[in-house]
């Protein structure tokens, strides 16, 4: 499915065309992260000439080469681990590397290094929002390395897309997204260990395409796509969502 068919944020089209950096798609298991990544790669395949390597467990979507050359590697059949496959992928001169799951220190460390050396790296994590995602990446490293990782991450991170799936009023499902786009302010917050200041900056960054999950949920309720009860159930801060809905004159 395309980005438009899935009703994903339009910023996804801009992010996947970036020449380098680290883009993370996060959310609970079964929230549609792989589908979002596939739609972004499909958009790239139709619009740019790039060499793409995916490392997946298992392969969920098969791509046919259009503008891009796409090599898909399956954990188990083609490689023993994400970190091993990632190291070997760097020897094949890829422009874009897609990591099905960034689950250990070696994989995360190599992904950051790959982004530093001029590749566009996309990966997934089981975290529920942008702030938790940044914390998870930094906390997986030994304390002695964390200051250096904060600096590296602040330089390479381009975006964090945190998603959750909701049931539509009319049937079917739709994803709601928290969107963090790395700008100079957010890079400084990561570098200076002020992760707790990320959420209020997302609320103020709408002109750059940013939003909190609660803002996304409130918008879906306003557009009568999902019920307020469903939105409240999926919110990590229901009190804040209730406040947003009341400001917009909507019943909770």
Walk me through this protein's architecture:
This protein has 252 residues and is an alpha/beta fold. The protein is 41% helix and 19% strand. It has a 7-stranded mixed beta sheet, with helices on both faces. Strand 4, helix 4 and strand 5 form a beta-alpha-beta unit. Helix 9 packs across helix 11. The two termini are 33 Å apart. The mean pLDDT is 94.
The averaged pLDDT comes out at 94
Which structural class should the secondary elements be placed in?
alpha/beta
For the secondary structure, the number of strands is 7
Q: Strands across the major sheet, in which order?
A: 3-2-4-5-1-6-7
Distinct helical segment count? 11
**Estimated share of beta-strand residues:** 15-25%
Ranges where pLDDT stays below 50 over 5 or more residues in a row are none
List keywords for this structure.
alpha/beta; globular; 7 strands; 11 helices; 7-stranded mixed β-sheet; 252 residues
How would you summarize the topology of this molecule?
Layout: H1 11-16, E1 21-26, H2 33-47, E2 51-56, E3 69-74, H3 82-89, E4 96-99, H4 105-116, E5 120-125, H5 130-139, H6 146-156, E6 157-167, E7 173-181, H7 184-191, H8 198-204, H9 213-222, H10 228-234, H11 238-247
In brief:
The protein is α/β, with parallel strands linked by helices and 252 residues long. The chain has eleven helices and seven strands. The mean pLDDT is 94.
């Amino acid at each position: 499915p395309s980005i438009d068919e899935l009703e994903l944020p339009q910023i996804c089209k801009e992010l996947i065309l970036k020449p380098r950096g680290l883009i993370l798609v996060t959310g609970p298991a079964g929230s549609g992260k792989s589908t979002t990544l596939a739609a972004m790669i499909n958009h790239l395949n139709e619009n740019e000439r790039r060499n793409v390597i995916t490392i997946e467990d298992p392969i969920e979507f098969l791509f046919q080469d259009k503008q891009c050359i796409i090599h898909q590697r399956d954990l188990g059949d083609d490689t023993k681990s994400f970190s091993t496959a990632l190291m070997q992928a760097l020897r094949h001169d890829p422009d874009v590397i897609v990591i099905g799951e960034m689950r250990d220190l070696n994989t995360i460390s190599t992904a950051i290094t790959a982004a530093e050396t001029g590749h566009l790296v996309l990966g997934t994590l089981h975290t529920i929002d942008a702030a938790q995602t940044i914390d998870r990446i930094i906390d997986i490293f030994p304390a002695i390395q964390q200051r250096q990782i904060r600096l590296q991450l602040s330089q390479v991170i381009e975006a964090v897309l945190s998603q959750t799936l909701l049931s539509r009023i009319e049937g079917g499902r739709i994803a709601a997204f928290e969107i963090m786009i790395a700008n100079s302010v957010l890079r400084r917050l990561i570098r200076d260990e002020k992760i707790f200041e990320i959420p209020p900056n997302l609320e103020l960054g709408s002109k750059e395409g940013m939003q909190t999950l609660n803002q996304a949920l409130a918008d879906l309720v306003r557009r009568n796509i999902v019920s307020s009860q469903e939105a409240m159930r999926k919110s990590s801060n229901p009190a804040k969502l209730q406040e947003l809905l009341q400001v917009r004159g909507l019943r909770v």
